[in-house]
């Protein structure tokens, strides 16, 4: 009897193939690796909670006992794509004491005096930690490209600098997960309109979002170039369809689980005599 082909993992289905990138050809409402509905997706996410928690604890224990491995989750996407939602619903399943989150805004005057990777290096996770970048060094080839904040030759050099930087991270024991939350123009418009329709969402609305939305085509092209130029074996890109919020959260959590499992960590052995400590404790 012929063996059935093994179903590709979520990570395998979301991993961006090498070569030219056409975001228009990727359905932002698709649910790769999952054929259930919203209710089933939320139930599946709840079911993953114990697994991702234990895997993170393994990593944390590894770091507390001299190990060097760590994990960095880079989250990129257009406005309203759901970076905050990923932090709440996927990263939120992790123990906060082992998580380092950094939201990168426009660089300060001091940061602009230094290389564009300087502030990124200062925010990297320590051994045993899960680091999360809400936006990242990729802003320097996305926003900078669209809004012409740097010369073309400068931006061109940054792609190679990013690849070299990420290779160094991986070589040092850092697993890098790069996620592009892929949202459609129509869904972004609906989410922005919801922020205007609901007084409890007004605080999230920024008039500048409409100005940036007018550059949608330029941003899509900038993303395609960055995804193509910086999609390496060491640090590949994963494109997560983000029109369905519940799937977006489930997919990113699956990526965390698969990569944490891939570290193949084990519980660190005791550096004391367990039997002796049991006797001492029993005598108290």
Written account of the structure:
By secondary structure, the protein is α/β, with parallel strands linked by helices. The protein has one domain (10-282): Rossmann fold, CATH 3.40.50. The protein is 48% helix and 11% strand. The protein has helices spanning 10-14, 38-64, 83-89, 109-112, 118-121, 139-146, 152-171, 185-197, 208-213, 216-229, 245-262, 274-282; strands spanning 70-77, 99-103, 130-134, 174-182, 237-241. Strands 2-3-1-4-5 form a five-stranded parallel β-sheet, sandwiched between helices. The longest helix has 27 residues, at 38-64. 32% of the residues are buried. The model has no long low-confidence stretch (mean pLDDT 95).
Task: Give me a quick take on this structure.
The chain is α/β, with parallel strands linked by helices and 284 residues long.
Radius of gyration: 21 Å
- The pLDDT mean sits at 95
Helix content: 40-55%
Could you say what the CATH topology is called?
A: Rossmann fold
Secondary-structure element order, N to C: HHEHEHHEHHEHHHEHH
Sheet of most strands? 5 strands, parallel
> Based on CA inertia axes, which overall geometry fits?
globular
**Major sheet strand order:** 2-3-1-4-5
- Percent of residues in beta strands? 5-15%
Number of strands: 5
CA-to-CA gap between the ends? 63 Å
Structural class of the helices, strands and pairings?
alpha/beta
CATH C-level name = Alpha Beta
- Shape-level CATH architecture: 3-Layer(aba) Sandwich
Give the tags.
48% helix; 284 residues; 5 strands; alpha/beta; globular; 12 helices; five-stranded parallel sheet; Rossmann fold
């Amino acid at each position: 009897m012929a063996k059935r082909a093994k179903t590709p993992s979520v990570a395998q289905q979301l991993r961006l193939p090498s070569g030219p990138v056409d975001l228009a050809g990727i359905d932002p409402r698709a649910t790769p690796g999952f054929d259930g509905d919203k209710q089933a997706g939320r139930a599946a996410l709840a079911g993953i909670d114990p697994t991702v928690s234990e895997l993170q604890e393994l990593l944390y224990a590894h770091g507390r006992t001299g190990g060097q491995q760590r994990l960095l989750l880079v989250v990129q996407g257009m406005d309203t794509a759901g970076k905050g939602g990923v932090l709440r619903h996927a990263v939120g399943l992790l123990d906060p004491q082992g998580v380092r989150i950094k939201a990168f805004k426009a660089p300060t005057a001091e940061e602009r005096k230094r290389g564009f990777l300087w502030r990124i290096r200062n925010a990297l996770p320590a051994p045993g930690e899960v680091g999360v970048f809400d936006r990242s060094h990729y802003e320097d080839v996305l926003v900078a490209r669209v809004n012409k904040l740097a010369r073309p030759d400068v931006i061109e050099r940054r792609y190679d600098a990013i690849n070299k930087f990420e290779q160094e991270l991986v070589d040092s024991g850092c697993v890098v997960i790069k996620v592009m939350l892929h949202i459609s123009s129509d869904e972004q418009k609906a989410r922005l309109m919801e922020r205007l329709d609901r007084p409890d969402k007004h605080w999230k609305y920024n008039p500048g979002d409409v100005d940036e939305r007018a550059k949608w085509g330029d941003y899509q092209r900038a993303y395609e170039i960055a995804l193509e130029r910086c999609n390496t074996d060491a640090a590949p890109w994963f494109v997560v369809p983000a029109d369905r919020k519940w799937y977006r959260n489930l997919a990113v959590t699956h990526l965390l689980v698969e990569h944490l499992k891939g570290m193949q960590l084990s519980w660190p052995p005791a550096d004391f005599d367990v039997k002796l400590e049991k006797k001492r404790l029993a005598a108290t």
